Amino acid sequence: MRLILMALMIMATTSAVAQDATCSKLAAVAWLEGMWEAEDAVRRTVEEWSFTSEQTMEGEGRVYRKDTGGQTGSESLRLVEMGGEVFYLAKTRGNALPIAFKLTACEAGAATFENPDHDFPQRLVYQRSSDSLRVDVSDLGGNGFRLEFVRGAN
Predict the structure, then answer these.
(1) pLDDT digits (tens, 9 = 90+) for 43-70
(2) Between the CA of residue 20 and those of 59, 65, 84, 116, what are the distances in Å?
(3) What is the tens place of the pLDDT at every residue in 79-125?
């Protein structure tokens, strides 16, 4: 029985260490690269991501009105690997400086970024399956909204 418990503890520790190592590299979110589009009744949202180096992905988020096609908002996005960690940086019109979110969890096709000190959002959860991408934008209590993206034409 002790051997089984010891083996389970070693496996759990090894898994946590492997996850930490994986989440410390930008390659953990390489699946985000490309153009993603989401639509609802009134707006079209686009996110585009591309690698600019092994440690940096540049992104841009844009929102358009569906009735006129006019752009109503944008944000400059960046994913950076530095100091053994990965950060999501968002520069919006409403903030003088970029807002940083740390990659706190990752697995194949999923990544969670958090900043508990920010007012809203505090958590960004990206989940990819095939040619779709779901982004949950929320506070730490789960209150927020979801965007459902599909792969766009580059």
Answers:
(1) 999 999 999 999 999 999 999 999 999 9
(2) 24, 40, 10, 19
(3) 999 999 999 999 998 889 999 999 999 999 999 999 999 999 999 99
**Coil vs helix vs strand at 113:** strand
Q: Based on C-alpha coordinates, what's the Rg of the chain? A: 18
User: How many Å apart are CA 128 and CA 135, to the nearest integer?
Assistant: 9
Distance CA 54, CA 81 (A): 8
Q: What average pLDDT does this structure show over 15-22?
A: 48
Domains of the chain by residue range: 2-151
Q: How many CA atoms lie within 13 A of 144 on its CB side?
A: 17
Q: Is 147:124 a contact under the CB 8 Å cutoff?
A: no
Which is the CATH superfamily of the domain at 2-151?
Answer: Calycin beta-barrel core domain (2.40.128.20)
